Amino acid sequence: MDKSVKKVVLAYSGGLDTSVILKWLQTNYNCEVVTFTADIGQGEDITQVKNKAKLHGVKQIFIEDLREEFASEYVFPMFRANAIYEGEYLLGTSIARPLIAKRQIEIAREVGADAVSHGATGKGNDQVRFELGYYALQPDIKVISPWREWDLNSRTKLIDYAEANQISVPKDKRGEAPFSVDANLLHISAEGKVLEDPNVPAEEYVFTRTVDPSDAPNTAEEIKIEFAAGDPIALNNKKMSPALLLARLNELGGKHGIGRLDLVENRFIGMKSRGIYETPGGTILLKARRAMESLTLDRGAAHLKDSLMPKYAELIYNGFWFSPEREMLQAAIDHSQTSVNGEIKLKLYKGNVIMIGRHSSSSLYSEDLVTFEEGTADYNHSDAEGFIKLNALRLRVAAMVRQKNKNN
């Protein structure tokens, strides 16, 4: 514990954990605490955060609406890569951490703080994501991770500490919480406690952004998404900002039971964990984006991009947003998106996103080339014979060697 810390910027939600951390920092480090609360679309009322911080003597309180920056500078660039971790996870928690870390460092510089702090536990990925972001942006910053230092390692101890220090404890926080929740504009996740056994189905009360697909409307809903340079810019012919468009897709997807995921994933620190995720808007967006790319991306570029995606997704998951390799991959991915323009028509129905139409002025699809009827395109069927024989050459040579060895 570095007692030389004079001022620390705390990522502060106003909940029980970070309220305890706030007091603990003041007591154990005898330092000034500056709080930073980011609205990234978590759907919580953060108007009381300022009052809570003031009650504990905080003089500098930062509360910022970062929804548009989150969508345009983090979510949309990640989606240009069609990033999926371990085949299913759309990285909803992972992509939020670098933005929070960036603003903490910027605020630390602004107020002259020499340290930053977060509320991530010592078993999770978020401690890595926050701290890799801090060090990438300010290598000499001091980082305080209370969960790695204190002995408040149970809900009971946290509540006892809170009550001993006049920190209000809501009724729903007493006792063991049924599970942990993290939310932002892209997704909401639930993990731990009653969800720790991967063989036990999640109860319906766990889900808050999506209806049960079986209870979704019996009539499908058609939507249209317009893309420009790989990003969605309009929904049903209405131009929208990135955050508003994503929020509206969340509403549509949630209504139709789209985007639920029950996943056992490999954490960066080495253990497996089970999470329940809801990403309604992101699930729709991924389907639409891939359909748009299928029409507008050259085969070589599309296949190379797909081969890079797992590495890109792993970098995001592990917290390397500010790494040179992620930035290098992003430059290549963004370059590939210049022609990804057009409109996609989808049908939403009981948990499914169904493709029904696609159009682009940049389309590489040629009906004249692919038609089974006689087309006018310059394609000679007989050219395929040489193409096939050249590609078969190594296969034929290998087969002849096998036959020769067998005969001997």
Topology:
Blueprint: E1 7-11, H1 16-28, E2 32-39, H2 49-55, E3 61-65, H3 67-80, H4 97-111, E4 115-117, H5 126-137, E5 142-144, H6 155-164, E6 180-183, E7 188-191, E8 221-228, E9 231-235, E10 238-239, H7 242-255, E11 260-266, E12 272-278, H8 280-296, H9 299-318, H10 324-336, E13 342-349, E14 352-359, H11 367-370, H12 383-407
Parallel strand pairs: 1-2, 1-4, 2-3, 4-5
Antiparallel strand pairs: 6-7, 7-12, 8-9, 8-13, 9-10, 11-12, 13-14
Helix pairs in contact: 1-6, 3-7, 4-5, 7-8, 9-10
Question: Any key phrases for this structure?
Answer:
Argininosuccinate synthetase, chain A, domain 2, 408 residues, alpha/beta, 2 domains, 12 helices, 40% helix, 14 strands, elongated, five-stranded parallel β-sheet, five-stranded antiparallel β-sheet, Rossmann fold
Helix content: 40-55%
Judged by helices, strands and strand pairing, the structural class is alpha/beta
Radius of gyration: 26 Å
Question: Which descriptor suits the 3D outline?
Answer: elongated
Count the domains: 2
The main β sheet shows up as: 5 strands, parallel
Report the average pLDDT across residues. 94
The strand count comes to 14
CATH superfamily of the largest domain: HUPs
SSE pattern: EHEHEHHEHEHEEEEEHEEHHHEEHH
Strand order of the largest sheet: 3-2-1-4-5
CATH class call of the largest domain: Alpha Beta
End-to-end CA span: 75 Å
The CATH topology name of the largest domain reads: Rossmann fold
- Named CATH architecture of the largest domain: 3-Layer(aba) Sandwich
Q: How many DSSP H or I helices?
A: 12
Low-confidence stretches: none
